[in-house]
Amino acid sequence: MGGRNNPEAEPKATQDVAAMHAAKLPLAYRDKCGHLLIDLNKCRREHKFKMWECGHERHTYEECEYYAWMDRCAKKQEAKA
User: Fold this and answer.
1) HEC sequence for the chain
2) How far from 40 is each of 8, 48, 79, 81, CA to CA, in Å?
3) Residue 9 and residue 29: Cα distance in Å, rounded?
4) Rounded CA separation 67/60 (Å)
5) How far apart are CA 32 and CA 2, in angstroms?
6) How many helices and strands (H and E) does the chain possess?
7) Rounded to an integer, what distance in angstroms lies between the CA atom of residue 37 and that of residue 9?
8) Residue 31, SS3?
9) How far, in Å, CA of 75 to CA of 70, rounded?
10) d(CA 39, CA 8)
11) Which pTM value belongs to this model?
12) Helix axis angle, 55-80 relative to 34-46, nearest 10°?
């Protein structure tokens, strides 16, 4: 139970800055999960922002954000110890 079951949603330390710039991602969203947000926004535009069309992409992006948050929490706990 628990754990990281979706390797597709794993945060990446290195991102393709040129691809994020070309996709016009705001600076606030260019984090470890920016590569997934590019795909999600592309799907949203193709389906005219119908929220039920891009469920897999949205779930993967949100899962990646959660994993990144958990990593930050773990690093903070290590720093306190």
Assistant:
1) CCCCCCHHHCCCCCCCHHHHHHCCCCHHHCCCCHHHHHHHHHHHHHCCCCCCCCHHHHHHHHHHHHHHHHHHHHHHHHHHC
2) 13, 12, 34, 38
3) 16
4) 10
5) 21
6) 3, 0
7) 11
8) coil
9) 9
10) 12
11) 0.89
12) 160
Give the Cα separation of 77 and 74 in Å (integer). 5
Q: Tell me which residue of 9, 3, 43 sits closest to 23, measured CA to CA.
A: 43
Q: Which two three-digit tokens encode residue 58?
A: 């949205």
How far is 75 from 57, CA to CA, in rounded Å?
A: 27
- Ordered per-residue pLDDT tens for the chain, 81 residues: 568 889 999 999 999 999 999 999 999 999 999 999 999 999 999 999 998 999 999 999 999 999 999 999 999 999 998
